User: Fold this.
Amino acid sequence: MSLKSKISIFFILGFVVSIVTANLPMAAIALFGLACNESAKGYAFANPNLNIVGACERIVEEMENLAGQNYAYNLKRKTGALDFITSPENGGVDARLISYQEGKKMAKLHVFYDQRTKPCQIVDDADSGVCDDGSTPVRKETTITISNHIKTPVRAYSNSDMVALCKDTQGFIKSRALSDFRAAHEFFSEQILAVLDNNIGKNIEWDGSTTAAGSYKDIQLLATESGQRIPKPGNFAEMIEDYMNNQLNGTPAIIGQGNFAMFAKLHKMSCCNATTPYGDENLDGEARFYLDQAANSVLGSNKIIMAGYNATQLLTFNENRNINLVDQTQAHIVVPDPLGYPFDWNLDFYFDKCDKVWKFQYSLIWGTFNTFQADSFAGDGEGDSPDTSPDCADELDGMTGVFGYNVTAA
Assistant:
């Protein structure tokens, strides 16, 4: 028996005697001595060859627990553009799949739309009637090619990789896949921002002035008083008036960051994507703000997009729907987005028998469609107005339902 074990027995006997004799000071001393001796035993006899199989997984989980929602591996930007374009309010598009070109990996959608009647076509001639020559409205149509690709990195893992990284196969792949999806969503949102930037049309402003297509209108929404930022809601009202003056209905969506995000915070205007892709914090407000933390880098510092719902719509296509192949060593299937977005992903994976490695990748094909086409409104046949009107040009010719604003602060 070791010396430290004998000392422990001595303290235990002392504690028993103290209880029998009701000697509380002796009991306290005995317990303290026992605790110190046992602690010393643990440090003195620590085994340097201790088997730590399984310990690494607990360490990783502990890091996640310590960091909580700010665990570095799980950090994610706010993706307002993607949240906006996939929101239930933005709806879908009435289109028919007409072809899929396998060699070029692109799909096509055929879309029909109509051109509205203009006030100048209304007559006040008492002698006119149904016997006069009439005109047959011609339905417009366009073909949208869906050929943009998003693909996660090709992942290759052997069973030995799983063991070395202290993860079971299912848990490890799930963890890595979610990280890939987060990055794919951020990339996707950047692409949607670029599309919206390219779709900025003419802004027919409330005061009679006009901002040209592709341009950003300056608007000051922040001021400084006594060293403190304050919002300028009166100027923000101009944006809402602009939206209504372009004859759009409903509540506009605003996508961006920077000065507008600060204005929204000070103006008590919640982000629609504050907690979920389709949050409802501000559904009854004057506008719905989607924070996108890539807006400054894609659009330019403090530039934002104001858009009408259903003006720009997302189209996706999954080539694996026509394959749906699964066997013991490969699969080409379609899986739902794991973070709740309303589109699916192609999942392709197979087992490399030579290297004994599993390889997999997620992908999708996408495109966008602006419901305001170049000939949606009759023009004068000049410039970007190819559809010459026999009566008069439409005042909305060049309006796309997407507007740009450069938010300034003073």
In short: The radius of gyration is 33 Å. The chain has a mean pLDDT of 77. The chain has two domains: 1-46, 75-119+138-410.
